[in-house]
Amino acid sequence: MKAITVEPGKPGSARFEEIPEPDVSNGSVLVEAIAVGVCGTDVEIVEGKYGWSPPGKQRLVLGHESLGRVVDPGRSRGLEKGDLVVGIVRRPDAVPCPNCAVGEWDMCRNGQYTERGIKEIDGYMSERWRIEPEYAMKVDPSLGLLGVLLEPTTVVAKAWEQVVAVGQRAFWTPRTMLVTGAGPIGLLAALVGKQQGLDVHVLDRVESGPKPELVRALGATYHSGRILDLGFEPDVIVECTGVGSVIADAIQKIGAGGIICLTGVGAGGAPSDYAVADVAAKVVLKNNVMVGSVNANKRHWYKAGEVLARADRKWLSRLITRREKPENFQRALERQPDDIKVVIQFSEA
Ligand SMILES: [Zn+2]
C-alpha cells in the first residue's frame, strides 16, 4: 500500500511511497483511510524539527488527524464493517506515570508517552491502518468527511474542561469568551463557547475572507486589531496563537476572576513590554488563572464527538478549505492565505 512517510530529523525526507500492509501489532481493527488533516505539527515533522520514528525503524508514517472506514473489526465488539472511525493519537507511557495509569495520558508526567504519526508509532497517512479497538472512536455517520475534524475538536474539548475545572474553585457564572486566533482550533473553541451559551468573540489579524465570515455565521463577534482595544473584559480567554504579545495583552485584559487557557505553542518573539511583577500583581488582585492545555484523553475524544454531532454541518464543512490527493501531499503542507483546515483525502467518505 501507499503511505506518506518521513525520516524524522531530516528536512525534505518526506515521500509518498509503497510500504508493507499495516502490522497487526498496531491493532486488530483494520481501517481504510478516508482523510487525514494536516496541522502545524506535520509541517514541523516534515521540516525535520520534530518527530520520532518507531524503535528500530528509520521512517515514520505521518498523520494524526485521521478518519477512516472499518474494513475488518477484528475482535472488537463495538465496531462493525463500514463504521466511520477516528484513531486516538496518544498512548500512555509504559512505566506508567500516575496519570497514564488512570487513563489521563494527556497529563503524562514523564514524557514517555507515544503518539501516532508523531512519536514512535506510525500515523494514519497510509491507505490502510490498524488500531486497537479501545483507541478507535466511532463518529456519527452523518458527519461523513467532517469526522476528520474530531482530533482538533478534542483539543478544545479538553481546554474547555480545564477552564470549567478552574472556574469551579469559586462561584462562577461566565458570560463572555474571547478566542485569540481564528485558525481551526480557534474556530472550534468558538463553537464550543457558543454551544455553552457564551457571548463569544474571536480576534485575529485578518480583516476579510473566510475567518470573519465563519465567526459571524456562528453568531459570534469578530475583531481584528489588539485585545486592549476591546470594549469588555472577557471572563474566559482561549488563546490559540502562541504569540507572546497576544498572551501579554490577554493577561492585561482578562476580567476579575477570569481564566486564560493557553493552547497555542509558539517560540521566540520580542520580550514583553510588561514587567513580570506588574503582571503578577494584576493576576493576584483579580484572582486570575492561566492554564496550559495540550492533547486529550478518551473522555475528551468522547465529548468532542458530541460537539461535532451537535454542530451545523454546513458550518463545519466550511472549515475544510482544501482537499489534496496523497500524491500532492507537499501542496497540502504549504500554507495558503485562506486556508483553515487542509486535508489529504485517500478515498471518498
Ligand atoms: Zn505518562
What does this structure look like?
- By secondary structure, the chain is of the alpha/beta class.
- The chain is built from ten helices and 19 strands.
- Strands 3, 5, 6, 10, 11, 18 and 19 form a seven-stranded mixed beta sheet that branches. The chain has a six-stranded parallel beta sheet with strand order 14-13-12-15-16-17, sandwiched between helices.
- The protein is globular.
- The model has no long low-confidence stretch (mean pLDDT 97).
- Bound molecules: zinc ion (ZN).
- Zinc ion is lined by residues 92-93, 96-97, 99-100, 108-110, 113.
* Rg over CA atoms: 20 Å
Major sheet characteristics: 7 strands, mixed
SS summary, helix count: 10
User: How much helix is in the residues?
Assistant: 25-40%
What is the terminal separation in angstroms? 19 Å
How much beta, percentage-wise?
15-25%
Outline type: globular
Task: Classify the secondary structure makeup into a structural class.
Answer: alpha/beta
Identify low-pLDDT runs: none
Please state the average pLDDT score.
97
Instruction: List SSEs in N-to-C order.
Output: EEEHEEEEHEEEEHEHEHEEHEHEHHEHE
**Strand count:** 19
Bound molecules: zinc ion
Brief descriptors of the model:
349 residues, alpha/beta, 10 helices, binds zinc ion
Task: Write the topology of this structure.
Blueprint: E1 2-6, E2 15-18, E3 29-38, H1 40-46, E4 60-61, E5 65-72, E6 84-87, E7 90-91, H2 98-101, E8 114-116, E9 120-121, E10 128-131, E11 136-138, H3 150-167, E12 176-180, H4 184-195, E13 199-203, H5 210-217, E14 221-223, E15 236-239, H6 244-253, E16 259-262, H7 276-285, E17 289-292, H8 298-310, H9 313-317, E18 320-324, H10 329-333, E19 341-345
Parallel strand pairs: 8-9, 12-13, 12-15, 13-14, 15-16, 16-17, 18-19
Antiparallel strand pairs: 1-2, 1-4, 3-5, 3-10, 3-19, 5-6, 6-11, 7-8
Bound molecules: zinc ion.
